[in-house]
Structure formats: C-alpha cells, structure tokens
C-alpha cells in the first residue's frame, strides 16, 4: 500500500497550487486510484490539481526534485488504467477548465486541457461551430484526455479523430520543460513530438492548453435504423452505405444480444427475431437529407432489411441515438462484468473477425455481444461474465488471449486493459525524452 507524501512536501505543493489543490486523504487517494477500467486499482501518494500551466510546471519540478513519479489525469473515463499511478502523484486537470479564446473567423478555440468536450460544445452553441471529436464519454472526458488517447467516436468517420482536429498544444514534460507544438509554436523544432503526444497516453508530459480546430456542421442531421435477419446482411449494408453518395457521418451496428438487452430494459418495440440493427446518421440540407433518406432505404431493403425506421416526429432521431448510447449500460444489466474490448480491423474483414470472435467466446461458454463502429472498422466485443468467479475470470482471460492471437493472424489489433492487478507502473520518469524547451515561460 502506498503511503501519502511527506507532510512537508504536501505543504510545499500547497504553497504552489493553493490549499484546495492538493488531496492526500485516504478517501481521495482511493477515488483517484480508479478510472473506467474494470480491473485496475492503484493508490497514488497524492493528487495535485493546478489551475494554470505555471502551477503545473512548478509542481512538476518539485516532484522531480522529490523523485516522485507523476501521471496526468483528466476525467478518468479511460478504459485502460493509464491515468492511475501506484505510489506516484496524480496531476489532475479538474481545475483547468477555462476557455481562453474562441476565434469564430478562423474557426479555432484555445482551451485549458481539463475542459470537458460537451461543456466546450455547449459554450460554442450560439456560434454554430463545434469541436467535432465525439467519444461517447463526451459528457465528462477532457480535451487533454482525448489528446492523450487520440479519442474518436461514431462521427469520426466524417470529422476525423482528435489528431485530425488538433491545431496545436502546450505541454509541461515530465522533466519540467514547457513545449509548444503546432499552432502556437514559434518554430517547428518540436513538431516531431506531436505523434508521440497524441495517442501517447500522457507518457511524455501533461498537456496544459490546446488549440482546437472547430467545424461548422450542416444544420440538419437525421438517422435511419434498419433491422436485419443476419449479421452478414447488416455488415454488408453498412459497407454499401459507406461506398454510396449518402452524406454519412456515423454507421453503427448492434447485434442480437444488444438488441434483446435494450428491448428488455427500455421496451423499444424492436421487431422480433432480428440478429442485427444498423444505425446510420447522415447530414446536409433538407433536400439532401430527403434524397439520402430514400437512397438509404432502398439500399437497406435491397440488402435484406426486414424493417426500417425513419424519424416521424421531433425527438425520434434522439431516441435512435439513445439506443446506441444505452447499448453498454443495457448489457451491464445482464452481467456482473461487461469487459469491452477494442478490436481495430479493416472494414472488409469486419464480418469474418466478428464471427470468429463470437465462435471463440461460445467455445468457452461465455456470452458475448458485439457493438460495432462500422464506419471506422472498430469492433467492440463485450464479454459478459462474473469476474468474481475465478473460473469465469479465467475463461474470459483465455478468450481475450485467443482474440489477441486471431488479431495477430488477420492483421487486426486488440486493445484492452492489462490483466487484473497489472497497473501501469508509477513511471513517467522525468528525463526520459529528448525535447527542446521553448525559451518562453508559461503564459497561463
Ligand atoms: C462510457 C464510455 C464511452 C467511451 N467512448 C469512447 C469512444 O467512443 N471513443 C474513444 O476513443 N474513447 C471512448 N472512451 C474512452 C475515454 O473516454 C476516452 O479515452 C477519453 O478520451 C479519456 O478522457 P479523460 O479525460 O477521461 O482521460 P483520463 O481517463 O483521465 O486519462 C486517459 C489517458 O490520458 C492521459 N491524460 C489525461 N489528461 C491528460 C493531459 N492533460 N495531458 C496528458 N495526458 C493526459 C492519462 O494519463 C491517461 O493516460 C469511452 C469511455 C467510457 C467510460
């Protein structure tokens, strides 16, 4: 069990970030030892919540001097345990939520990295601009967490992932230097670092501010939902939609297990005995929406849809999205543990891989559901079991091992959290990266 930092270190940290900015109580250390991963548990020595880049930099320097390992944390919605630190100091961005600038003419925003995505887009509402990345955790996940995870979401199909919507950033590295990359940089000396930072899970340092690209989506969006008698028909329709001229922004698929769970929980009145549902979201002018809607309906019918639902009244689009958003919560009602995996696979192999994964789970008698972002070839197999039962846990691990081997064989990739008990080391050691510091001091 990790001990708290020494009282004098606490006091010095407090003198840098304020009395409320350092949490050392066992209950706080317990809470910050968890995130949205299923199995990872840790106990940091303390949690530091600076309000500005300058405070971050000073606190990082103090931790370096005290040889305390550090890790960055946004909202803790990450599923891989990578915001946890056993025995280190958690740098939380919870008090760094300022919108510093919105430039409507040049379509960018400058924000502190603790800003939550929905909060930012709520603020932008009157401008008609949005920050497009839409992970389904957008109600709470932060700009910094999205950069570190290169988060994407259903609409990344059209608008791209976080990397595609990032213009620049400011970061304090774990060796205490301030770097600025992209838009704010006076020269591009550090540009090569960008790919390591975006998607780098905070290994190089803590992002403090970000320059975000804003886009102006068309005024209207609509959804169509089609139900199929087989997974094959649904996947083939999804692929056909992607190749069609429909102005599509998301193509999502839910399998029979998800459909039945949703039905049982929310009484959605889905058709009986269907194996998959495909949700397609598209956008454009009213005229284009009408055209696309008809085209989609024809495509789905041709490829075997048994029933198609189109919005008939205000609120229907929202209801359709709610089915997608509630997919995982609905599954969780029927299993003590729902282990969601990320399998990235070329869209052409989606069906084959999904089918083989289902066969692997069946061979080990563990129920499995599929939630699929058809649009960008991201498959979420969800294993449904009870992790508290050792035999079930062991079978789930075996399944994940076999899925991993399958992915290697077919050129797909599996991402999931590490095995229970294997927490990200309290690392992020200072001095491990080669970064040239900028000559400026922190500006915020
Ligand atoms: C219900 C649910 C739905 C989700 N849906 C999606 C989805 O559709 N697409 C998707 O991509 N992900 C999804 N996720 C995963 C997760 O929400 C995203 O990865 C999100 O970007 C994490 O943001 P966060 O602020 O919660 O980061 P945290 O969980 O706090 O941290 C995640 C990683 O980012 C690092 N980090 C955090 N802040 C900073 C910073 N300022 N500087 C440097 N590193 C930092 C941490 O060290 C850690 O490695 C989902 C999670 C949940 C629980």
Secondary structure layout plus pairing:
Elements: H1 7-17, E1 22-23, H2 26-31, E2 46-48, H3 53-65, E3 70-73, E4 89-92, E5 99-103, E6 108-112, H4 117-124, H5 143-149, H6 156-159, E7 166-173, E8 178-182, H7 194-197, E9 205-213, E10 220-228, H8 231-243, E11 248-255, H9 256-266, E12 276-284, H10 286-302, E13 307-309, H11 316-325, H12 327-332, E14 337-340, E15 342-344, H13 350-363, E16 368-373, E17 378-385, H14 390-410, E18 413-415
Parallel strand pairs: 2-4, 3-4
Antiparallel strand pairs: 1-2, 5-6, 6-9, 7-8, 7-9, 10-12, 10-13, 11-12, 11-16, 14-17, 15-17, 15-18, 16-17
Helix pairs in contact: 1-3, 13-14
Bound molecules: flavin-adenine dinucleotide (FAD).
Brief rundown of the structure:
This protein is α+β, with helices and mostly antiparallel strands and 444 residues long. It has 14 helices and 18 strands. Strand 7 (166-173) and strand 8 form a beta hairpin.
CATH topology-level fold name of the largest domain: Uridine Diphospho-n-acetylenolpyruvylglucosamine Reductase, domain 3
- CATH class category of the largest domain: Alpha Beta
Our measurement of the CA-to-CA distance between the termini, rounded to an integer number of angstroms, reads 36 Å
- What ranges have pLDDT less than 50 throughout 5 or more consecutive residues? 422-444
Q: Kindly name the structural category.
A: alpha+beta
Total number of helical segments? 14
**Architecture of the largest domain in CATH?**
2-Layer Sandwich
**Largest beta-sheet details:** 9 strands, antiparallel
């Amino acid at each position: 069990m990790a001990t708290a930092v020494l009282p004098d270190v606490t006091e010095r940290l407090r003198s840098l970030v304020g009395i409320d900015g350092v949490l050392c109580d066992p209950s706080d250390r317990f809470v910050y030892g968890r995130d949205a991963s299923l199995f990872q548990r840790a106990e940091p020595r303390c949690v530091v919540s600076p309000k500005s880049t300058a405070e971050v930099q000073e606190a990082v320097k103090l931790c370096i001097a005290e040889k305390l390992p550090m890790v960055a944390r946004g909202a803790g919605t990450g599923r891989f345990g990578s915001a946890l630190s056993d025995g280190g100091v958690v740098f939380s961005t919870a008090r760094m939520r300022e919108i510093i600038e919105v430039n409507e003419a040049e379509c960018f925003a400058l924000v502190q990295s603790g800003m939550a995505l929905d909060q930012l887009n709520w603020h932008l509402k009157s401008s008609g601009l949005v920050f497009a990345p839409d992970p389904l955790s957008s109600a709470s996940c932060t700009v910094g967490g999205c950069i570190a995870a290169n988060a994407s979401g259903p609409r990344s199909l059209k608008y791209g992932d976080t990397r595609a919507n990032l213009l620049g950033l400011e970061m304090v590295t774990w060796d205490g230097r301030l770097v600025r990359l992209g838009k704010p940089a006076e020269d591009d000396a550090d540009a090569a670092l960008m790919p390591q930072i975006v998607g780098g899970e905070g290994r190089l340092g803590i992002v403090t501010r970000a320059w975000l690209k804003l886009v102006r989506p068309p005024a209207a969006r609509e959804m169509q939902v089609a139900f199929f008698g087989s997974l094959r028909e649904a996947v083939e329709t999804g692929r056909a939609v992607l190749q069609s001229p429909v102005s599509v922004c998301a193509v999502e698929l839910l399998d029979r297990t998800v459909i039945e769970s949703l039905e049982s929980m929310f009484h959605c009145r889905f058709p009986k005995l269907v194996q998959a549902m495909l949700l397609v979201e598209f956008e454009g002018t009213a005229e284009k929406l009408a055209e696309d809607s008809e085209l989609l309906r024809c495509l789905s019918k041709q490829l075997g849809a048994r029933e198609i639902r189109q919005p008939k009244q205000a609120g229907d689009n929202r209801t359709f999205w709610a089915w997608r958003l509630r997919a995982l919560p609905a599954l969780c009602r029927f299993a003590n543990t729902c282990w969601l995996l990320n399998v990235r696979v070329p869209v052409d192999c989606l069906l084959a891989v999904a089918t083989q994964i289902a066969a692997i789970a069946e061979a080990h008698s563990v129920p499995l559901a599929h939630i699929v972002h058809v649009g960008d070839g991201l498959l979420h197999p969800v294993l449904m079991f009870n992790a508290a039962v050792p035999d079930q846990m062991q079978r789930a691990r075996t399944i994940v091992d076999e899925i991993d081997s399958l992915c290697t064989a077919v050129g797909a990739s599996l991402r999931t959290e590490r095995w229970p008990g294997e927490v990200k080391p309290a690392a992020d050691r200072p001095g491990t990266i080669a970064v040239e510091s900028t000559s400026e001091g922190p500006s915020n």
